[in-house]
Design brief:
It is a single chain. By secondary structure, the chain is an alpha/beta fold. It has a domain of about 160 residues: Vaccinia Virus protein VP39 (Rossmann fold, 3-Layer(aba) Sandwich). The strands form two sheets. The protein has a seven-stranded mixed β-sheet with strand order 5-4-3-6-7-10-9, sandwiched between helices. It has a three-stranded mixed β-sheet with strand order 1-2-8. α1 runs antiparallel to α2, α1 crosses α10 and α4 packs parallel to α5. The longest helix has 19 residues.
Length: about 300
């Protein structure tokens, strides 16, 4: 059981702001005194006093994406806003061929690959997300499939893209082995995933109640960067590029709309203390983007 406390999260954010300021040399006396005063104010807030106890692992990825599918393409999904330009810049430089968008979701990278001239296949485990992709791309081959059992023959594609999905799989190696299997020698793999640092700084979101009526927590797997290398290099992948796109520096609008994902506790909490939120979160890594290439033994 996990007790999700809005007060606890905001106090943690204040601490992260202080620690980062001390580490980077930006925590002058005024900043430290402001954080101390803010902590006292938060401790006295009746609105933040009550939390919620959530059951870890009592909701599935399929359940979450069933809820999320209608909202996934709405404006303001900051993870996508930060990740997508980096991934698409890498894709723009790759040879045109047969491309697989693995865990394609609503088809945002599928559409980009299609515009670039690739013969694209998309697959996803969520029927709700695939339905949205089919609305966007009625002429593209879209299939329901698990990342660990891709319905394609060996050496069938030139490029594989897998965006913001590996955080949902417990082990990287079997999935990357499937990517290596379906890629032709010399083929390219572009992966994006939530950054492990972001998992510590973002609010933990309780999901809709489980069978016992209690809020639930989705199990996610956040990994150090070394984990991707440990899984990829023995399969014959070589690193071509790695980027850690960061959250932009910007102030929070206290009147901003809530996160559309249904939750009890959301990013709205950041508006309780915009200064500490900015100090802790701004310019912090949000995602990691890898570009691997599979070795080609026939190359001279």
């Amino acid at each position: 059981m996990t007790y999700l406390s809005p007060l606890g999260y905001l106090l943690g954010l204040e601490g992260a702001a202080l620690l980062r300021g001390l580490r980077e040399g930006s925590a002058d006396q005024a900043f430290v005194e402001a954080r101390t005063a803010e902590i006292r104010r938060l401790l006295g807030s009746v609105e933040l006093a009550e939390g919620v106890t959530a059951v870890p692992g009592a909701i599935s990825t399929a359940d979450v994406y069933q809820d999320w599918a209608p909202h996934y393409d709405d404006p303001g999904n900051q993870m996508i806003d930060i990740e997508q330009p980096v991934v698409q810049r890498i894709l723009d430089g790759l040879p045109v061929g047969v491309a697989l968008d693995a865990a394609c979701g609503t088809g945002r990278h599928t559409a980009h690959l299609h515009r670039l001239g690739h013969r694209v296949i998309g697959c996803d485990a969520s029927p709700e997300m695939l339905a949205r992709a089919r609305e966007r791309l009625p002429d593209v081959d879209l299939r329901q499939a698990d990342l660990r059992r891709l319905p394609f023959p060996d050496s069938a594609v030139d490029t594989v893209v897998c965006a913001l999905a590996l955080t949902h799989v417990p082990e990287l190696a079997p999935v990357l082995a499937e990517f290596a299997r379906v890629l032709r020698p010399g083929g390219h793999l572009v992966i994006s995933d939530a950054h492990v640092m972001s998992s510590y700084l973002r609010p933990t979101l309780p999901r809709r109640p489980g069978p016992d009526g209690r809020p639930t927590l989705l199990t996610e797997y956040h990994r150090p960067l070394s984990a991707y290398l440990t899984a990829a290099l023995p399969l014959g992948f070589r690193v071509r590029q790695c980027e850690e796109p960061r959250r932009p520096r910007r102030s929070l609008d206290p009147g901003a709309a809530p996160d559309p994902l249904p939750t009890w506790m959301s990013w709205d909490l950041l508006h309780w203390d915009p200064e500490a939120s900015a100090a802790a979160l701004d310019d912090s890594p949000v995602a990691v983007v890898w570009h691997f290439q599979l070795e080609d033994d026939g190359e001279e």
